[in-house]
Amino acid sequence: MTQKFIEIAGRKIGPDYPPYIIAELSANHNGSIDRALKSIEAAKEAGADAVKIQTYTADTITIDCENEDFMISDGGLWDGYSLHKLYKWAETPFEWHQTLFDKAKAVGITLFSSPFDHTAVDLLESLNTPAYKIASFELVDIPLIRKVAKTGKPMIMSTGMADEQEITLAVETARKFGCNQLCLLHCISSYPAPVNQSNLRTIADIEKRFDVIAGLSDHTLGTTVAVSSVALGASVIEKHFKLDDDHEGPDSAFSLTDKQLKILCDETRNAWDALGTASYDRKPAEEQNLKFRRSLYFVEDLKKGDIITEENMRSIRPGFGIAPKYFDEILGKKVRKNIDRGTPVRFELIE
User: Fold this and answer.
1) Dihedral of the alpha carbons of 42, 45, 46, 50, in degrees to the nearest 10
2) Are 113 and 52 in contact (CB under 8 A)?
3) pLDDT at residue 295 is higher than 80
4) Does residue 75 have a pLDDT over 80?
């Protein structure tokens, strides 16, 4: 892979570094800036590397219209809502952004956002966002990708619903217009997403096929899929989270609580630590147990000149004698001296 890592706010992200955990706040502030601020604190305490918000208003992402095209009628979480009504409920107001960025800086966690139109990019640039996220639904918005790429900031793009041609065009656009730090997240855009459609092997293919840092934007319930993705090459994991209380919001049904987010952070980093390298060397932690391996021992009292047999020599624990691989070679030979039962077999004791 040509691109070994990307860097966001001084943190290197790639296969040689622990997974970068993005806590996606999305609409889980439920319209309360105080809740949003507490969520940033909670993400920091849980161990996340970054908090991601979404920068749009209902009027910048859609129009207030209740024609059939603008109504949600799929039987899912948001069935019966118009798009405008849903996004009005879920939006993070532009006027909150400065306060949220200031809060993240104060508690020591990175904050960046997904812009959904050009005005959102302009706002985020004015706040000196360290990176950008392109949401799955916006991966086909080539003018938006072009504008973000021109900022020169690192870009993370989700690939949910996109086919290979659409991903290729998005990647080519980002690179052509100035992005040289690019990450693609494998994503299933279903809320929640079924585990058996996760297809995590796609992560390694994304990295190879598009020559990018690869990761996972995970909408399954729980942490199993996200933790498993580390073993398959995910350098970035994005997961929706909410405060651990009874407030219900647009995204709460498929979001981790802040307590579960901490579990995710701990377990994904443990999973990465466990990968290590391909090695057949004895590990330091094994040294103290060498003495409990099998080796050859005399199991009867012997006198000088006695012949070694299968009855008076056995392969047993502990491991202070010579290796069992010499068993056949030693059978039939004589001992040089008197031997007590329980003596480890050594070559100097054999004629």
Assistant:
1) 80
2) yes
3) yes
4) no
pLDDT tens-digit map of 307-341: 999 999 999 999 999 999 999 999 999 999 999 99
Query: Chain-wide mean pLDDT for the chain?
Result: 96
DSSP bridge pairs for 236 = 20, 215
Helix (H, G, I), strand (E, B) or coil at 9: coil
Cα(first)–Cα(last) distance of the chain, in Å?
Answer: 59
Placement of tokens 């070559």 in the chain: 347
**In whole angstroms, what is the distance from residue 57 CA to residue 104 CA?**
21
Contacts 24+ apart (CB under 8 A), 311-317: 313/345, 317/292, 317/293
CATH, range 284-349: 3.90.1210.10
| pLDDT the model gives residue 350 | 97
Q: Which residues contact 325 (CB under 8 A, 6 or more apart)?
A: none
Residue-by-residue DSSP string for 156-206: EEE-TT--HHHHHHHHHHHHHTT--SEEEEEE---SSPPGGG--TTHHHHH
CATH 3.90.1210.10 domain locations along the chain: 284-349
The arithmetic mean of pLDDT across residues 40-60, rounded, is 97
Listed in sequence order, the DSSP H helices in 6-126 are: 33-46, 58-61, 83-90, 97-107, 118-126
The confidence score (pLDDT) of residue 246 equals: 62
| Residues pairing with 339 in the sheet | 302
Residue (of 129, 216, 124, 134) closest to 174 by Cα position? 134
Token digits for 44? 């920091």
Residues of the chain with CATH 3.20.20.70: 17-56+92-275
With 0-12 / 13-18 / 19 or more C-beta atoms within 10 angstroms meaning exposed / middle / buried, residue 21 is buried
CATH number of 17-56+92-275: 3.20.20.70
Token pair recorded at residue 339:
């031997």
Q: 154-172 pLDDT, tens per residue?
A: 999 999 999 999 999 999 9
